[in-house]
Amino acid sequence: MISITGLRKSFGAATVLNGIDLEIRQGEVVSVLGSSGSGKSTLIRCINGLEKIDAGKITVDGFDVSKPRELSEARKRSGTVFQLFNLYPHMTAVQNVALAPIEVLKLPRMQAEAEARELLHSVGLTERADAYPSQLSGGQRQRVGICRALAMKPSYLLLDEVTSALDPEMTSEVLSILAALAKTGTTMVFVTHEIEFARSISSRIAFLDKGQLIADLPTEEFFSATGMALPRVAQFLSKMRKD
Amino acid sequence: MRYGDFTPFDIVLLLQGLGVSLALFVSTTLIGLFIGTVWAVIRFYRVPVLMQLVTFVAELLKNSPVLVQLFLVFFGLPAFLKINVTPTEAAVITLSGNSAAFIYVIAVSAIESVGRDQIEAARVFGLTRWQILRRVIAPQATAFAIGPLTGLLVNQLQVTSLISVIGVMDLTKVGNILNLRTLKPFLVWTAVGLLYYLTAKLVTYAGARFEKRLRAHTAWKGL
Amino acid sequence: MKFDLSILAKHIPFLLEGAWLTLQACTLAVLGSLVLGLAIGAMRTSASPLLNRLAAVYIDIFRNIPFIVQLFFFYFGLPEIGIYIDAFTTGVVALSIAGGAFTSDVIRSGILAIDPGVIEAAQVSGLRKITIFRKIILPIALRASVRPLGSVFINLILTSSILSTITLNELTGSAKIVASNTFRPFEVYFVLLVAYAALTYSVSILIGMLHRYLNRHQEEGAV
Ligand SMILES: Nc1ncnc2c1ncn2[C@@H]1O[C@H](COP(=O)(O)OP(=O)(O)OP(=O)(O)O)[C@@H](O)[C@H]1O
Ligand SMILES: [Mg+2]
Hints:
The structure holds 3 protein chains of 3 kinds.
Chain A: E1 2-11, E2 14-24, E3 29-33, H1 40-47, E4 55-60, E5 63-64, H2 68-77, E6 78-81, H3 93-103, H4 109-122, H5 138-150, E7 156-160, H6 168-183, E8 187-191, H7 195-201, E9 204-209, E10 212-218, H8 219-222, H9 225-228, H10 231-242
Parallel strand pairs in A: 3-8, 3-9, 6-7, 7-8
Antiparallel strand pairs in A: 1-2, 1-4, 4-5, 9-10
Helix pairs in contact in A: 3-4, 3-5, 5-6
Chain B: H1 9-44, H2 50-62, H3 66-81, H4 87-113, H5 116-124, H6 129-159, H7 171-182, H8 185-222
Chain C: H1 12-44, H2 49-64, H3 67-80, H4 87-112, H5 116-124, H6 129-144, H7 146-159, H8 171-182, H9 185-214
Helix pairs in contact in C: 1-2, 1-4, 1-8, 2-4, 3-4, 4-6, 4-7, 5-6, 7-9, 8-9
The structure holds adenosine-5'-triphosphate and magnesium ion.
Adenosine-5'-triphosphate is lined by residues 11, 16, 34, 36-42 of chain A.
Organism (chain A): Aminobacter carboxidus
Main location (chain A): membrane
Domain ABC transporter (chain A): 2-235
């Protein structure tokens, strides 16, 4: 379980997250929605320890991310997929995927690379396994990014706008993989602007507004009268649908 | 006082050495600035033969040790041309030529940094090539070149230390003399190093100040 | 006097011996400055303010003091404190230390140019700091730094001629001997100048090839 209580985070004078409480249990797919600048990315970066939090507590399966000793355990349990892929440019797809299993889980190289190939095969990249990131299309790069996160067999997958750098065709390529993952019971925290897709795969929606979690509802409730009763949510949804 | 100890006069000696280094540094930089710019103008006008020659000489000077250039001028020229070359003359010739080669490279890239379209536009207005160079390119190229020039100057200041090898009484040569007399190498070379260091810092500081002034000036003019 | 190279013919083996010594000194110094440059460059980009400051001071000192002064400091100073090493070792050590300062600057900018997102990806996957440095930061920074490192190494070759001032008969040192034996300094130093230029030119070609080879997968398309 990822448990967030009383999380506060500011950059200088600007408070970006202002008292967040959120729990993500095994098997859930939680989509995080909110307008630009509401703090979604910052929330993800706090969970994987890329940002130091100012107050509150975040634990992943009981490991506190603000304690340096426990952070590495917490990080082993979650995998992150980035908006701009952030692949290692000097490594092939297989090497990208196998690096952490070899270095962190101490798997033998042969085994790690075999597993990496299998993962790449499962996302349709059998042929491109030995290509370098610069030789791949955006959609292919993001599929490698997903494999790299999955290679550590994480309990939780953190995804921050993983399709917003992709054109529509590549987006659907990546989304179908995520849908399949959701079906197999992978726990996901999913930051996105793809409202319809979020609706189709999530069990819950968390809605951030100016650093506060103003809604945390089961998906269907969020998109029904309960959600619409919240002015900010209604405003957000109508604006997103218009775009 | 034993023979071999430091004397208060040694400070004067060190400062004299520094003076010689600085004098050579400043004079050869100015000569190099002039020659290097002339070379760049030759290239700008695409003067046949001369342009290839200039590029070749600059490459040769940039890619060979200054010490060897110095030996060629100081030992080689007198033997070959049957002329007399004093250490100071050899130092001036070599350091000027070397500075010119590097300044040429900086000047060429500074000229190239001014966009082709600006030059085209000026030509449309009927300016001659010389007017374009003076009024359009020179001011912008100077601003562009100050940064790389400062770096070059710090380097050229250090290069002057090599003339001690052919017997010019510069700061390093004074260091040699004091080193031999006092047998206190750490002290002597630390003092010499410190003087060079401070001078280099001064050059860097002056370059930064000058660049700032120049930028402020151009920005103000642009309003 | 005639320009006559034929008299040099019988001195070629001797000059080649000098060239061999230059090659050895430069190869060792390149390795030395790479090791030092990596260490100092890593310190310069580390989160610890103390290490960062120390590295900055090192770079500042060795970049702003002439190499010949540094060389004399070691050559005359080390025996003073009971360290007796030969001219060759002293030369290699001094070249490595000075080269390390320039190398670390290149490494530092190579490291700073890395997309921070790539490093974050490595951090969240649980890699240890040292692993991130070895497997991610270093390979990426080195690939991007091949060309600037090449310039540093070419400068190292040119600077190595200064080792002749501490009685080391590397290429320049042996040329000096040939020049005084044959009374043909012009021919000798002219050939020497061209030889150094040819050497650095071929090194720069090799570096270009190495750069293209190491970056063969990065060329198509950015991101
Ligand atoms: N490193 C930082 N330094 C200063 N301010 C930051 C930093 N990172 C984020 N911010 C600010 O924090 C606020 C929230 O940013 P965040 O990236 O979390 O928003 P977001 O909800 O992910 O937005 P988007 O939908 O555009 O990605 C923004 O106002 C942003 O400018
Ligand atoms: Mg974001």
